[in-house]
Design goal:
By secondary structure, the protein is of the alpha/beta class. It folds into 2 domains: 20-43 and 55-207, no CATH class; 215-241 and 254-477, Rossmann fold (3-Layer(aba) Sandwich), CATH 3.40.50. The protein is 41% helix and 13% strand. The strands form 2 sheets. An 8-stranded mixed β-sheet has the order 1-6-3-2-7-8-10-9, sandwiched between helices. β7, α14 (396-406) and β8 (407-417) form a beta-alpha-beta unit. α2 packs across α5 (169-181) and α7 runs parallel beside α9.
């Protein structure tokens, strides 16, 4: 059993023989504070981490965090507390600044109009987050889910939840771990202690804006900018085979029906092509790849993407745009009007197709845990697509090595994304250096370009529209690797 002092858990057990009463009293007070919903801001420590950027967290720690953070109180109640406090502080700030206004009525109207419209959106976002988390454990999993090799939750029989509603092996292990380490805790689940309220707020905002980017009509422009080049090159590399030879006015209905089934979505020659999408985010690019007929594996480690991704793909929507999100309510800079940040956006823009989802597998966890040293993934994939991803990994050289190892000789690596580099410790490679290193890891560059003006989760009604010039390349794995 791992040390109970993990930073991701609040340990209420007395493990020492001294100062027992004092420790128990302190622990009880801490639990009472959490139960009362007091999410205090905490000072960031040097060793604190950012959600979704946890390159060095152990598998068991990540599993514990997944258990704690993926609870309804963390996703919905936690969000509600933080946002209400955020707007309360902002309202106080506005009142302090507006004291100088001579017209008290004008002062009240300015404050009330802004704050009340924004605060009214909070429970609507809470409702969406409650829907996202609802049924995560027992729902009928339409999406195949796998765990890292040799991890706490892996098993030969693990993965998708049982279709009869019983807990899968993976879910049983998760529940057992949670029960063992929290059997004396009677409290609302909270976010891990080292995360500040600002961390949580930012990650939930990112969750909501990425839902809009991937699964709304508002996000179509960004998706077309970023995803279409990858999809177009995939189709060029693997053109469809036309096996339908029944256009000779043959009235044999049985033959026609068989050909229609075999050519569902024209994927008869693509369903054996394995495509890996690491850092898949909310999964729309991977879904579009699977819709072209490819056998697609998604890899994502951020729970703030995994949970809504699974919910969207496993929900039997009756209609498009049946859910509402208010993603910009706390983004207060560069606003045209209050209406521009309190606008509602409907999701999803499509109803995910079951036949497409059947070609998808979700690998939950860090890319290196899954693919770096596992023999079963060595030269396993025909294609790897990295989209807005290579600059979010702490060790970019390790990433290149891993990608090279999982692609078959003659396979392809397609990349589209900026070189923003989210970590100070990351090697900040230039575009030219990226190309040289890709070649050094056993690839031949077939196409390279810089795509201009790509945006990411932009509010089209904002006054601020940051754009990226994106590194795009298609590389083919050499048959003989001289590396």
């Amino acid at each position: 059993m791992e040390d109970q002092s993990s930073p991701f858990l609040v340990d209420t057990k007395d493990t020492t023989t001294t100062d027992t009463t004092q420790q128990q009293q302190q622990q009880q007070e801490h639990v009472q504070q959490q139960t009362a919903g007091q999410l205090d801001d905490r000072v960031d420590q040097e060793e604190s981490i950012t959600m979704g950027d946890d390159q060095n967290i152990s598998r068991q720690q990540r599993q514990r965090r997944l258990l704690l953070v993926s609870k309804p109180s963390a996703f919905s109640v936690g969000y509600e507390r933080i946002m209400k406090r955020y707007f309360k502080d902002y309202e106080s700030l506005m009142k302090e600044h507006f004291k100088q206004l001579e017209d008290p009525l004008k002062k009240v109207n300015l404050i009330d109009r802004r704050i009340e419209k924004q605060k009214a959106c909070i429970p609507r976002n809470v409702a969406l987050l409650q829907w996202i988390i609802q049924g995560q454990t027992n729902q009928d999993q339409r999406l195949k889910v796998i765990s890292p090799p040799n991890s706490l939750e892996s098993s030969p029989s693990a993965s998708p939840s049982s279709k009869d509603g019983a807990l899968s092996y993976q879910e049983q292990q998760q529940q057992q771990l949670y029960d063992e380490e929290n059997d004396d805790i009677d409290r609302d689940d909270q976010f891990p202690n080292e995360f500040t309220s600002e961390d949580i707020k930012q990650k939930l905002e990112t969750c909501l804006t990425n839902i809009v980017r991937d699964w709304s009509f508002d996000g179509k422009r960004e998706r077309d900018q970023t995803y279409l080049p990858i999809l177009n090159d995939l189709q060029s590399i693997y053109p469809l085979e036309n096996n339908n030879n029944n256009n000779n006015n043959n009235n044999n209905n049985n033959n026609n029906n068989n050909n229609n089934n075999n050519n569902n979505n024209g994927n008869n020659n693509r369903n054996s092509i394995k495509v890996l999408c690491p850092g898949c985010g909310l999964g729309r690019l991977a879904y579009e790849i699977a819709s072209l007929g490819f056998d697609t594996e998604l890899n994502e480690q951020s729970i703030f993407f995994i949970i809504p991704l699974k919910k969207i793909l496993t929900t039997e929507f009756e209609n498009i745009e049946s859910k509402t999100v208010y993603p910009y309510i706390s983004i207060l800079k560069n606003t045209k009007s209050i209406d521009s940040i309190t606008k509602q956006i409907k999701i999803p823009d499509i109803i995910p197709d079951r036949t497409v989802i059947d070609r998808m597998t979700l690998a939950e966890g860090d890319i290196f845990e899954f693919y770096e040293s596992t023999t079963q993934c060595y030269q396993y994939f025909d294609v790897v697509t990295t989209c807005f991803f290579i600059d979010v990994v702490l060790d970019i050289l390790q990433l290149f090595k891993t990608i090279s190892s999982v692609i078959k000789p003659g396979g392809y690596w397609i990349n589209n994304g900026p070189l923003f580099y989210h970590f100070n410790e990351t090697l900040n490679l230039s575009y030219d250096e990226i190309i040289i290193l890709v070649e050094s890891y056993g690839f031949t560059i077939l196409k390279k370009d810089i795509l201009l003006g790509l945006s990411y989760t932009n509010n089209k009604d904002s006054l601020y529209h940051p754009n990226f010039d994106s590194v795009y390349f298609v590389a083919k794995k050499n048959t003989i690797n001289n590396n």
